[in-house]
Amino acid sequence: MPGNDPVVTGITVFLAIAFGPVVLVGLLVHLSRLARRAAARRGRPTPRPIGPPLERLVADLRRLDRLRRGPRQATRVRRLALLAAYDDVLLDVCRAVGVEDPPLRAHVEAGGTQGALDADREFARLRTEAAIEITGVRIDPPGHAA
User: What is the average pLDDT across 96-117?
Assistant: First the structure.
């Protein structure tokens, strides 16, 4: 009758005695490792990006840059608004790519939109653009119409 073979039963008992403790310890170690990982995940929330994605910020920056370099705006108010928007997006891109203390920040905080047309602020804008381009973000990539 199958299943009553003393040789098969003996081998099964031998294997259970020989490898049972190793398998049991391996399962306990693996389960404790999984439990630690699950507890660590519950303890710290998954990081969420702050602000819009970098691709959108760069697209906005390029669009505003083309408008800024294009034909002069009809009124001073439009020119100030365009430069203020460009400066805001420029600083957002700096924050997104990790540029520490961009030169433009002090001018924006000190002058707001009033000093947007100052020559010092324009120079700070150029220095900030250079700092962004050092990180690898091209503001005016080749092939774009100026």
Answer: 80
